[in-house]
Structures are given as C-alpha cells and as structure tokens.
Amino acid sequence: MLQGCRVMNYRVFVLIGILLVSFNAKSIKITEQLPLSTYINKAELYPYKLTLTPKPAKLLLEFNDDTSRFEDASSQLIINTDIPESESELGFQYNLRVVENQSLCRSLIQSTLDDVVAEDVMELELDGRKFDESNPSIDNPLDKLDEKNNWMGENRLTLKSRYIDGKIMECKGSVYLEAELAL
Q1: Closest residue by Cα to residue 133 from 176, 82, 91
Q2: What is the pLDDT of residues 94-134, one digit of tens each?
Q3: pLDDT tens string 39-75
Q4: What torsion, rounded to 10 degrees, do the Cα atoms 21, 24, 30, 36 define?
C-alpha cells in the first residue's frame, strides 16, 4: 500500500515541476512594426445608387462686349437616388467635386487658328460658394423626396467668366463633375 502512495507523490511532484518551469519562461519585446491596411469597397456597403443630372445639360453663354466677359449662366444639378424614404434615419448625404473645368478661347482673325487667346476663363460656384478641384462640396443633405418617394438633393451650378482680352474669338469649354454618396 505504501508503494502506491509513493508513485502518486512522484506524479504530483512532476506536475508541480512542469508548472514551475512554465512560469519561469522569459518574453522578448517585439520591436518590429507590423503595417496594417484595410480596403473597404464602399459600393458594397449599401445597395443604393445616385445619379447627377444637370438641367440644362448644355449652356450657351452670351459675351458682353462692354465688360469683356461672358454673362453668368446657371444649371440646376439634380441628385437622384434610389434610397427610399424609410431609410431617413441613416441620414445619407452626398459629395460633389469638380473633375475637370476646362475652357479656352481662340482668335478667329489671326493667321493660325491654333493661337490661344485665353485659357481657363470660367470659374464655378455651387450655391454661391467657390467650387473647383481644390474646393469640393461635401456633406450635402439628401433633403427632398422625388415622385417615387426616394431621397434627392439639388444644387445650383453657376459659371462665371473672367475678363477676356480679345475680340472676335471662338470659346469652348467643358465641366466634368463627380457625385458620390457620403457615408
């Protein structure tokens, strides 16, 4: 009977010895930085879409000879979505930014039509505020409902001319905008 007791004591001793060894382990401080990155595809977060429709889509500008500028012209920007009225608690907004604003004027009486008289003659305003590549319009509310009870927004885009030094010219320009749903 005593022999069985000795075996049991030996097992207890071995178990305690293993526990003591595991508590004596040392750790080394990690000095390496682990770069972490995350990619979120915003298009998959919400199933909603928006469209940007300018009304009118094309503007014909009138030149004022007295001021040597084009008269201001505006277009209403309609932001339509497929976000139903029932989603109002999420508070969706949208951002608008200028992708490109390009304008130039060429002389019609000089020897070559490639002579550019003026470049970048048009400035943009959105709802009365400066609007260009470095000044986007962010966090615009979707605060109106369309005929399908989907949320929409509206903005007024105004083209303003700079002074143009020259007569008898042909001027052309284009503005490209981008609209995105703000989460």
Answers
A1: 176
A2: 999 999 999 988 887 765 556 777 889 999 999 999 999 99
A3: 777 667 778 889 999 999 999 999 998 999 999 999 9
A4: 60
User: Are 141 and 93 spatial neighbours (Cβ–Cβ below 8 Å)?
Assistant: yes
Classify residue 92 by its DSSP letter.
-
Burial 94-126 (b: 16+ CB within 10 A, else e): bebbbeebebbbbbeeeeeeeeebbeebbebbb
Tokens of 104: 């130039």
Determine contact, residues 105/94, Cβ cutoff 8 Å.
no
Contact 131, 90 (CB under 8 A): no
Give CA torsion, residues 63, 72, 154, 56, to 10 deg.
-10
51 DSSP assignment? E
Third-level CATH fold of 48-182: Immunoglobulin-like (2.60.40)
Residues 80 and 50 sit within 8 Å (Cβ to Cβ)? yes
pTM for this predicted structure: 0.72
CA distance 182 to 107: 43
- Strands (E) in 37-149, as ranges, are 50-55, 63-64, 69-70, 73-84, 93-107, 116-119, 122-126, 129-130, 137-141, 144-145
